[in-house]
Design brief:
The chain crosses the membrane at residues 110-129. This protein is of the alpha/beta class. The protein has helices at residues 23-42, 93-108, 120-125, 141-147, 174-186, 188-198, 221-233, 240-247, 251-262, 266-284, 289-295, 301-312, 316-323; strands spanning 12-16, 52-58, 64-69, 78-83, 112-116, 133-135, 152-154, 159-161, 165-168. Helix content is 46%, strand content 13%.
């Protein structure tokens, strides 16, 4: 990736272009974010920098290079990389291997990886989804589980936002994913007005705590390493000593740097991760509240209930009554 100038470009969203990638999704996402820029101007938000859209493709030497850039001449600062779907079969292992190192490098820098439908195979092949849940099209869920048994394939969740990785199920889910990215990074108003302009259904705004969107672009590699570990493990076994050890820092130094980077104390961060996982279990499973509390790392279900209500404003039972997908 070639260096560019240091001008601040705001939100840059990249789209990975690979053989057999669905062109409708590649260009549709580009159009969606272009419309969002127009809507932002109409809303009169002079503080909002334009969303930058870039497309990335492997060249003949195996390097990942830009093949389209809506703001050329400026240093890249990729906040999100979207892997679109394909109209073909599940990607071949050799193709996935050629992209693996690049995805790992971007993820390690704080870029959110997002996939649509079988685009999830690219992220799964990188190993970044090991031990985690991932959404994909129902037709490919079994193949994903067979190829990558350490990934919990789940076709029942249309869009799974897990902080540093987002996966979506449907072949046309790129619209919903694009709107969710707008909401997450630029606010619900812009997402809603962009959906209205495009005449598509808006993405429901989640309750506070139901979707945790951690800051990943702070540049502190030691803290980012801990954040990836917490997202991958669900923060179930996390404590100050283990987090500081993961970062390779003395505990007091870790506390200071973690809060400076994320805006949260480590305990608050872990609570957000756990409550977000609990929300998903309340929506999509029939497990009891006590079982969910134990599953996300709370030995005392009453303590879990207090934390859950403080973060979301609802008790776990009330949350399930309002948002459960499983009857």
């Amino acid at each position: 990736m070639r260096a560019k100038t240091d001008m601040d470009t705001g939100l840059e969203i990249g789209v990975l272009v690979y053989p057999d990638a669905q062109r409708a999704a590649v260009h549709g996402l580009t159009d969606l974010f272009t419309v969002a820029n127009q809507v932002a101007c109409e809303l009169g938000d002079g503080k909002l920098l334009p969303i930058r859209i870039s497309h990335w493709q492997l060249d003949q030497t195996g390097e990942l290079c830009e093949v389209y850039d809506s703001l050329p001449g400026v240093r890249h600062d990729l906040k999100v990389l979207v892997v679109p779907p394909s109209l073909g079969p599940a990607p071949a292992p050799a193709l996935l291997e050629r992209h693996r190192a690049h995805l790992c490098q971007w993820h390690a820098r704080g870029t959110v990886l997002a996939s649509v439908c079988i685009g999830v195979f690219f992220i799964a092949a990188s190993g970044l989804l090991d031990g985690r849940s991932a959404s994909t099209h129902w037709n490919y869920a079994q193949t994903l589980a067979e190829r990558y048994p350490q990934v919990r394939a789940d076709a029942s969740v249309a869009l799974l936002d897990d902080g540093d990785i987002m996966t979506s199920a449907g072949l046309m889910a790129w619209t919903e994913l694009g709107l969710r990215l707008l909401e997450r990074f630029l606010g619900a108003t812009l997402a809603r007005e962009t959906a209205r302009y495009l005449a598509v259904d808006p993405v429901p705004t989640p309750l506070p705590g139901a979707l945790f969107a951690p800051r990943l672009d702070h540049g502190d590699e030691a803290v980012l390493k801990v954040q990836h570990w917490l997202q991958g493990s669900g923060a179930r076994e996390a404590n100050l000593a283990s987090m500081a050890g993961c970062a390779g820092l003395e505990e007091r130094t870790f506390l200071r740097r973690f809060r400076a980077a994320t805006g949260l104390r480590p305990t608050q961060y872990c609570q957000q991760v756990r409550v977000g996982r609990a929300c998903r279990l309340l929506e999509f499973t029939r497990r009891s509240v006590d079982q969910i509390a134990w599953g996300v790392g709370y030995q005392d279900p009453s303590a879990f209930r207090k934390v859950f209500q403080r973060v979301t404003g609802l008790t776990p039972s009330d949350y399930r009554r309002r948002f459960a997908v499983v009857a």
